[in-house]
Amino acid sequence: MTVASKAHGKAIKASHNDNTSFAALIPREREPVNLEFPFAALDGVVTPDSLFYVRNHFPIPRIDSADWRLTISGEVDRNLVIGYDELRNLPSKTVMATLECAGNGRVFLVPKVSGTAWGQGAVSNAEWTGVPLSVLLAKAGIRAGAVDIVLEGADRGEVKADPKSPGPIHFARSLPLSKAMQDEVLIAYAMNGKDLSPEHGFPARAVVPGWYGMASVKWLNRIIVTDHEFQGYWQTLEYVAWKRENGLPVLVPLGEAQVKSQIARPAAYEAVAAGSKYRIHGAAWSGESAVAHVELSFDGGANWVTATLVDAPLRFAWCRWEHLWSVPESCGRLSLLTRATDQAGNVQPDHRDPDRRNYVINHIVPVEIDVR
Ligand SMILES: Nc1nc2c(c(=O)[nH]1)N[C@H]1C(S)=C(S)[C@@H](COP(=O)(O)O)O[C@H]1N2
Ligand SMILES: [Mo]
């Protein structure tokens, strides 16, 4: 079904999937709209569209798929212009991938930092269908000397708070050629088997499994192949963290997501019945590697028990975990800790590294509960 609506003074056909209700999401910002997945409601491995977090920097562009074009230019043998039907007729692939915003968990940082105050829910997992970016790049022909693949969205606006943008800009991020050529990186047109909703990037978006969410550019309009590293706003003034090189701190754009586990239930300050059996559960994920194991501690990290993985660990997708806990007799306030380790041997850190600024928040955060 297509719905006619008026936008930018012109009648457009809205997307086929324009009727998702986001009422169950937690509002974090109204303009632009930013909505959080209520992580305590974690149920299936795949997050339904209506629960998948929404993260925007500008108003959501309403795009008619008939008018939409994706152009590929720059360091290529042939400039390409691809329409929606053409994209959907190219060889496609479905990948289950978790997207986590690099600011997920920001509300837990002490001292407070700037940026949207996400709790646990700027993370969700979906099945994405689309054309591998490598297929499009091969069609265009990458020239020797290509370094970065710039992905630009149709959304546009002016950042008025510091760091201010130089007037209105689009959302744009780049990928190094090596990641762009991996076959999990998609130009996706479907999420969980349905056309994308406008909120999640209709008609098409990038999905960059293993990387923080900012890389997965929505409402994708342009792909530009460059012979040098892209220096755009979202690549230099936002979504960057300090790295120590030769003892000197340098700012580097964020990329791979870091290993992390979160407890869904019990939720913070939940009352848990003393002496009962309680199913503690949550999800864990990493960047390029799959989860190896998840542990829990009830004594501040002195002792750890291994949780049971509910889903088979896969690269790029979270896996749920659970632990049937024999709740002690009344002990009042108790802190639960969880920590994940991935198959590459990365372990969630105990402490926050301030070099990460207001991003990449994967250190262990205790969940306080009341046993009574
Ligand atoms: N064009 C565009 N793409 C974007 C964004 C945006 O504001 N504009 N936000 C990015 C960020 S920061 C994240 S975390 C993910 C979130 O994707 P979702 O809204 O589908 O959950 O989209 C990314 N892609
Ligand atoms: Mo993000």
Description:
The protein is mainly beta. It has helices at 84-88, 133-140, 177-180, 233-236, and strands at residues 4-7, 10-13, 26-29, 34-36, 69-74, 80-83, 93-100, 123-132, 148-157, 169-176, 186-191, 194-195, 205-207, 220-226, 240-245, 248-253, 260-265, 271-272, 277-285, 291-297, 305-306, 308-309, 319-326, 332-342, 367-371. The strands form seven sheets. It has a five-stranded mixed beta sheet. Strands 7, 8, 11, 12 and 13 form a five-stranded antiparallel beta sheet that branches. The protein has a five-stranded mixed beta sheet with strand order 18-25-24-20-21, with no helix packed on it. A hairpin with a 7-residue loop joins β20 and β21 (305-306). Bound molecules: the ligand Nc1nc2c(c(=O)[nH]1)N[C@H]1C(S)=C(S)[C@@H](COP(=O)(O)O)O[C@H]1N2 and molybdenum atom. Residues 55, 101-103, 213-214 line the site of molybdenum atom. Residues 52-57, 99, 101, 153, 155, 171, 200, 213-214, 216-219 line the site of the ligand Nc1nc2c(c(=O)[nH]1)N[C@H]1C(S)=C(S)[C@@H](COP(=O)(O)O)O[C@H]1N2.
